[in-house]
Specification:
Blueprint (H helix, E strand, L loop, with lengths): L16 H11 L2 H14 L3 E3 L5 H5 L4 H10 L25 H11 L4 H12 L11 H8 L3 H11 L12 H11 L6 H9 L1 H6 L2 H8 L3 H12 L22 E6 L2 E6 L7 E3 L1 H8 L6 H38 L1 H6 L9 H8 L3 H8 L3 E4 L2 E4 L7 E2 L7 E2 H13 L9 H10 L6 H10 L5 H4 L4
Parallel strand pairs: 2-5
Antiparallel strand pairs: 1-4, 2-3, 5-6, 7-8
Length: 454
């Protein structure tokens, strides 16, 4: 066995921490980028938020040291006006009540007192986000050392609160409570459907229900319409009352003189710059301890890379959106029905970037268009071939299917095969199986569940 030494050149990509950070910055939406940059300002002393330009900025860099010394030497005013009372103004908006807060307010107005009110507060705390009770009455009775009928009596009061159906232990009880609040409690057929026919009702087995209940289909349809007016999740309207989410557009597209102008929304996050004070310390070669100098140099390098990554993110996002607007010009001119098939690879090849880079640039970001706010991923979808003319986007086909269902005769709903035949007649090459797939994705029930008998 012979041993030898040799040199070999090989290229490979190493994921350095800075490269990972640049990829993360590219992928962050505007709101999350705002949080990230503000955190970086706290961690890096060489980064500071840039304020609006002032006269002192135009005349040259201010002398920070002199300004700070002058500020601290003036002890006559510490920034507080002790002679005036501050006026406490009410907030401009208030957050919505949660389900528990809404019920607790009603509990305070109820005739319950003493231990009964404590039981009521405990039961309210045992409700889930949909308003269903998640504890057994025997457990509550043992906890408060009271009888089971006393707990049931308190629950009965709670079930009379708004929203109707709250405090139920299952779906049937929830619907029956709402039925009583609507004044339909005497409708025996509806009550029978709720107690014994919910499974068949959910599956659309109407003929089987009519045979089992021995009623005509027309009367069964009337009872089904009553049940459809009920809410199976009465507490869901309060869910997330304190977790309201807001969407902010990362890019805005406006039509100006027949052309579309792309504006990258960079006003939501702070403008950063390098601290002139620390930068001068390094430039002038002032006497600084070696350990401190190395620390400042590392932070300077990190700050410069963040500034470069922010600018690179802006340019990449602009190039991607400019390409999307060019490919989807018919959408911006005429609306969603003119959306064309488009893939990430087509955009990547057009602007000379890798497909993964385009994916990161579009993930979680939104574009404000003349037709509304859309996620950037909305503009990328597969397509179906037409017999003549350009292919059509799968999103447009879903809208066509939804339009057919909305305009169909409810007594004779369209089957998937009939929808496929209509689309084929308009020149779109599509199969029944693909129609079923798109229908499910659009959350459209099958024809047997859409059928009405009156």
């Amino acid at each position: 066995m012979e041993l030898s030494l040799g040199l070999e050149q090989r290229q490979r990509l190493i994921m350095t921490p800075m490269l990972r950070q640049a990829m993360a910055i590219l992928q962050l939406p505007a709101l999350e980028l705002n949080t990230f940059l503000r955190q970086e300002v706290l961690n890096n002393p060489l980064l500071e938020m840039q304020e609006e330009a002032t006269d002192s900025d135009e005349g040259g860099p201010p002398e920070e040291d002199a300004e700070w010394m002058e500020y601290f030497s003036d002890s006559s005013d510490l920034g507080l006006n002790w002679g005036e009372r501050r006026e406490h103004r009410a907030p401009l908006f208030s957050q919505g009540l949660s389900l528990q807060e809404h019920l607790s307010f009603q509990l305070q107005l109820s005739p319950l007192t003493g231990v009964d009110r404590e039981i009521g507060e405990f039961l309210i705390g045992c409700l889930d986000g949909n308003g269903y009770l998640q504890c057994g009455l025997d457990e509550v009775a043992a906890r408060f050392a009271v009888s089971l009928p006393q707990v049931a009596s308190v629950l009965k009061v709670l079930q009379g609160f708004d929203p109707p159906g709250v405090g139920a232990r299952d779906l049937s009880e929830c619907l029956l409570l709402q039925l009583d609040s609507l004044g339909e409690g005497e409708n025996k057929l509806v009550r029978l459907l709720i107690t014994e026919g919910l499974e068949d009702l959910a599956a659309g087995r109407y003929q089987r229900l009519a045979t089992f209940l021995q009623v005509p289909l027309a009367r069964l349809q009337e009872a089904i319409d009553v049940i459809r007016r009920l809410d199976p999740k009465p507490g869901s309207r309060f869910a997330g009352a304190r977790e309201t989410g807001y969407l902010t557009s990362d890019v805005t597209v406006e039509r100006v003189n027949g052309e579309y102008v792309i504006l990258v929304n960079d006003t939501i996050f702070p403008r950063l710059r390098l601290s002139r004070y620390y930068h001068r310390l390094l430039e002038k070669g002032l006497e600084v301890e070696p350990q401190v100098r190395r620390y400042l140099q590392e932070k300077l390098k990190a700050g410069l890379f963040i500034l470069k990554s922010i600018e690179q993110r802006r340019l990449t996002l602009y190039r991607v959106c400019e390409c999307v607007v060019r490919f989807q010009r018919d959408f911006f001119d005429h609306g969603v029905n003119r959306l064309k098939p488009l893939t990430l690879r087509e955009v990547a090849e057009e602007i000379g970037l890798h497909e993964s880079t385009v994916s990161r640039a579009t993930t979680g970001k939104y574009m404000q268009t003349p037709w509304g706010l859309f996620e950037l991923k909305f503009f990328f979808s597969g397509g179906l071939q037409r017999e003549e003319g350009p292919s059509v986007s799968s999103r447009s086909v879903k809208r066509m299917i939804k339009g057919m269902v909305e305009s169909e005769d409810a007594r004779h709903p369209l089957s998937d095969q009939q929808i496929a035949e209509r689309l084929q007649a308009s020149g779109i090459d599509i199969s029944r199986r693909t129609v079923a797939k798109y229908r499910i994705e659009a959350q459209i029930p099958p024809s047997n569940r859409r059928k009405r008998f009156t």
